[in-house]
Amino acid sequence: MEIKLDEKCIEAIVQANIQAAVAQALGRDPAALVAKIVDAAMTEKAENWGRETKFQQKVREMIREEAQTAFKAWLVEQRPAIAAQIRKALGEKTKTLVSDVAAKLVEKLQGSIRVDLTVGAD
Length: 122
Description:
The protein has three helices and no strands. By secondary structure, the chain is an all-alpha fold. It is elongated and about 115 Å long.
């Protein structure tokens, strides 16, 4: 005796069995299942070789984003003081820069002077 079943019929039987097994597993102890799902989500490793979990990695990223946001807000508040300090530093550096350039020019002028002149006609 040979029984032939088409592929769609076999798929329907397999899907029904899977659905029945999932429903039975969910119905036994929903709280225990939720605990297992949460535990699995919080302990899943980010990389096979690392210690950090995906949950820890995400929390670290969220904390870093919050720290950056807080720092940006602080930076906006401090902008006038930062600008004043930059101007002060530039003023001090400009004085020494100008005197250094002037000293180099005087040093070069004490040696030989060379002038290159190019004249062209259009």
